[in-house]
Amino acid sequence: MAESARAPTGARLDHLLVADMVEPGSRVLDVGCGDGELLKLLEARGVDGRGIELSREGVNECVAKGLAVIQGNADTDLADYPDDAFDYVILSQTLQATRHPRVVLEHLLRIARHAVVSFPNFGHWRIRLQILFGGRMPTTPNLPETWYDTPNIHFCTIKDFRELCDVVGAKMEKAVALNAWGRPLRLNAPWWFWNLLGEQAVFLLSRRPSDRHA
Amino acid sequence: MAEIELRDDRDLREREAEKPHSPVARFAAGEPLKLDAGVELAPFQIAYQTYGTLNAARSNAVLICHALTGDQHVANIHPVTRKPGWWETMVGPGKPIDTERYFVICPNVVGACMGTTGPASLDPKTGEVYGLDFPVITIRDMVRAQAMLLDRLGIDTLFSVAGGSMGGMQVLQWAASFPKRVFSALPLATATRHSAQNIAFHEVGRQAVMADPEWKGGRYFAAATRPHRGLAVARMGAHITYLSDAALHRKFGRKFQDRDNPTFSFDADFEVESYLRHQGSTFVERFDANSYLYLTRAMDYFDLAADYGGVLARAFRGTPTRFCVVSFTSDWLFPTSDSRAIVHALNAGGARVSFAEIETDKGHDAFLLDEPELLAIVRGFLDSAAQARGLGAAAKG
Questions:
Q1: Whether B380 and A82 lie within 8 Å, measured CB to CB
Q2: Which of B124, B144, B143, B147 is CA-nearest to residue B134?
Q3: ipTM of this predicted complex?
Q4: Which of A31, A206, B40, B370 has the highest CB neighbour count under 10 A?
Q5: What angle do CA B99, B191, B210 make, to 5 degrees?
Q6: How far apart are CA B105 and CA B64, in angstroms?
Q7: Could you read off the pLDDT of A159-190 as tens digits, one per residue?
Q8: In this complex, how many residue pairs, one in chain A and one in chain B, have their CB atoms less than 8 Å apart?
Q9: How would you classify residue B258: left for phi > 0, otherwise alpha for psi between -120 and 50, otherwise beta?
Q10: Which of B339, B347, B358, B360 is the best mutation test for A, with the most CBs of A within 10 A?
Q11: pTM, to two decimals
């Protein structure tokens, strides 16, 4: 991702939003934790945080910061975690880079009661306009890679993601859309408005009790 | 000449087995070490080195577990070889395992030959050197003995246990056997069980020792001989497994040793041959051949999951210990997949675990070398653990 919008404290706005969805003192797994910035923020709030990161550089940086992070892959390694190992699992800006988003989402809701998922919204008006008038795969300041270089193989819109939540039986506890400057959009806006003007979205999901795996 | 030249520092090394240049904890006949083999070792002694100062709360002790051919001389000049300690990049004032902050203890393992009781020690029953009358020991026996030493030193909980290779096996055994005594653990370049390939390499090494006519069925002390050639060959073979193809190529390639052309003989024409011969001949100066048999055997027998019904995660269920597991990309003796198995089991047991794989061409030996990424990771891990443990930056006295 390109430069992210930051609060005066230096924290990324989308990280603050995610952190606010997590109960202090809970056990959290951050899948795709990068250089550990969000985990650091969570630990400062008394969260028992763990991380998985694909890149070796990211992992080594996190471990050197004293974070409990392991090298691993969201697509293959979530299956190794037991049921209910955590209170929350966070998948921040990573869903679109997984091979099997549905399977990943199902695992998130198996290993934790709550999942916080953030992703870039491909329904944003600028992206729609690029396809409509440019006739080419869109690129944005936050998603600068060309189609042949991008790690993001499963883009979706806010509307698409809501549908996936229904498919896997996830309950939407909270949802927030952020504009291009990383600020939350009006809370009482209708979904179509968010899908058009939200550059990214953050969802707090929970497992429906009846969907508990036997 | 085609054979290996050996320098004999027999007296110097063999004195270390009984009267080492290290403090010694003696355990009398009434305080036996109960061995997995079903027998008791008594009396016995443990030679150990310490660095730094134990704080008033006795909460800053770090146990270092040495590898197969290591010893307790972690960060001081070795009394036999006169070389620097084997982990001076890691342990010392201001180093990642900071002796200004932590009280570092490194005991020589049971079965070794630098002052802790082993096959080169005198059997009190016969007054002769044990040799093959020494009982076969395991990694768990080594750890049990270390726990007795800590009891003797009045240390209940270790701030950390660290070690690579066979040392890493002891770290894992510590965490499994005494979870409440281990606040943090650093198993490096290791595995929860020795692989068939590794057992095979060890067997070749043991056969090289036993094929030396001077081994005399293990009774070479009585015969006033030493199986130096066999032990040197064992070391040469093992040393290759500690490196990597890429590292050997980088260091030696096909370069000739002090000559421009091959001699059409079995002389050490190539630099790599000369290097290995040197490794073999310096090793026998400081190591007992029977100790080599016993310690390789202890590693072969190590299979932590087997002690827990074949389920590794059970060894760590509910463990309070925080772990930092490290592997190296070019280590083919204890490959990253072995470390992943440890991490998998720890995760399944709910442990707090960090895991990093470090890119290097230096092979298994990388854990002993000046690897900046390794040093940064160990420092970061220990700093954060120290914070959680309430150890200040200058926790002295």
A1: no
A2: B124
A3: 0.82
A4: A31
A5: 100
A6: 6
A7: 999 999 999 999 999 999 988 887 888 777 88
A8: 61
A9: left
A10: B347
A11: 0.91
